[in-house]
Specification:
Immunoglobulin-like, mainly beta, 45 strands, 2 helices, 1% helix, single chain, 14-stranded mixed sheet
Length: 738
Amino acid sequence: MMVLMMLGVPSAHAAGKAAGGQAAVVLPVLHVHKASGPIPIDGRLTDPVWQQAEPVVLTQQSPHPGAENPYKTEVRVLEYKDALYFGFRCMDPNPRAIATHTLARDGSMIGDDTVSIVLDSFGDKRTGYFFQINAAAARADGLVSGPLDTSFEWDGIWDGKTARTADGWTAEIVIPAQTLTFGAAGARWGLELDRFIARDQTELRWASPLLDADFFDMSRTGDLVLDEPLKQGHGLEIAPYLRGTKVRDFSRDASSWLTATGGELTWRITPQLAGVLTVNTDFAETEVDARQVNSTPFPLYYPEKRAFFLEGANQYTFGLDMGQTFVPYYSRNVGLLDGYDIPLYGGLKLNGHVGRMSIGLTDVQTRTTWVPTIVQHALGLPSAKVEGTNLLASRVAFDVDKHLRLGTIVTHGDPEVLTSNTLAGADAVWHTAKFLGKYTLELGGWGATTQGDMPPGEREGWGYRLDYPNDLVACAAGENHYGNGFMPLLGFIPRPQTNQYTANCSYKPRPSQTGRFRAFRQTGYDVALTRVTDNQGNLESEEMDVNPIHWIFNSGDTITAGAILRHERLTTPFAIVPSVAYPDGEYNFGRLSMNYNTSLNRQFWVAGQTYAGRYYGGNMMHQNLGFGWSPLHGRAQLNVSTDNYFGHTPHGNFVEKLWQLNGALYWSPNLSASTFVQYDNISFDLSSNTRLRWTMKPGNDFFVIWDRTWQRNAVAPGLNLAPAAESLTMKLQWTFRL
């Protein structure tokens, strides 16, 4: 195994034996020196100042940890004028094969050659920032809450450039101190560095190049020590905007111009703690939601995309790997009702740390508004008028030691302004990356109660979970209980008033690369069980998923095949479409499934999912097909997907279709035009969202957004699409840092 040296510090793989005879892991330390002069960001690493930084060398993490490889990668880190600079030199024996398929900000880079950074700026070994750049200089970033909980919607202010060389490519990244909140002076940060080579799915790491080490597991990062603490100036950031919108209603043949101005003021009270004031909050540039087809009686989850709510979102993570089963603070309940915008007067946020305590606070005041009749009926509101209200969420967590975190959460308010509602909860999460020497093991538990104008019944909820997420064997099990009177109106619970039991396990061996199965990178055998009862113990649903085939090829292609066995008890009728409803009763489903995805490192890719079998006393086939094309090294993109449901049941037949098209042109990573078109045969709406984005420099953006909707006459033959509504928005936003 290759040994890394940095200022005399041994690599992550040196030394010792731990319990069970496993090799003990000694995480490396990187001392960052202050550069003697400015560092121009051109992606080339030719400036002599880079020689002041000692290079570190990345080691192969996958598929063969520690093995020799032709992709030598050196990384240098410097500090200059309160910013961190990272320089990557990526050797490649075949530079013409370097893959890039996007230049989009926050675009998918799964099929691209990339370098990535995770920074645990608090040194708490739990939370952090994620930064990634591909060989074409497209940038992506996110917030890390834990190994299984990372949000990629957050956008920070940072910059990066790349350049091709005769023997590979290079990248320069600059991350200003004011983009981060971080620990006290002299504190050690966590750092992990990564390089991914798409064509053969090779991955290199710095601190923990082990198959069982998740890149977002902050407990496995090395230490970054700054020779001089970063400073944030006066800690003030002002981000005003100016917006103009022309709105047209074709049904009334009326149009109007609307203008707005507002913005945000951020004050970094300490390097660890930031307060944000937003006035006349605006989300015009936020990407529209991708529609989803719902074939179940339960609500769907949509991710948060609005910038104000994404900043510090990782502070609100509650419990262990709760996923979408229970989110106590679901920020999309603030300023949105059934997808309809509720204007905000403004709000306050507080994010960061005080010592070993992490803090998150969001307090928002909405405006009185009138929602469309369709929204009123969908939510059962007594009036189309929704009064303005105050909505609050607060989260405080305390790190007892490097393994155990205790936390509390409080939310208050009703987005529909119908009742008084308060949630209070507490949780505990214990994490180690040294179980039996090198494996990850996590334990978590939570409890909460809701108070206010609640219906009668038990107002408490609680749960626990054990997670063993490792490379060869990954297993998890848990239970969640939601009382009949447990109703967190600022949260998300798709199945309230239930007891839920889950267990899953995967065995994922890696075949020998010299044997007959050498085309396979990894195979998997998966089984998952879910059981849901009401609070009296009566079975509502039970499901077993078995995938005897889960193949991952060295090329990056994947195939999964299996079976789903499900029992469902409807206590109230369920309408899959307005014309087809299923009465209450007992139903058994048995379905076969097959998924396939070609590797995204190719210029053309296809993906498909097919489920076929029983459905509420009849049969249903579900097909999800996708196609992508990214010519000109990612300067153009075209993605088309169809989601189709064909049902034949005793209570009626139905066909549900959702068609989506994404197209984009990129002149550079800072200038792009994209369009997103959607149509479904339930709403009969065809909608398009077209966006031009010009980033003059990080933090200063100009947007042009054109939205248009056509409505189909469902009773007339043919498409008969008539324009329904249209808006054209221009928005300019700046960022000033003091």
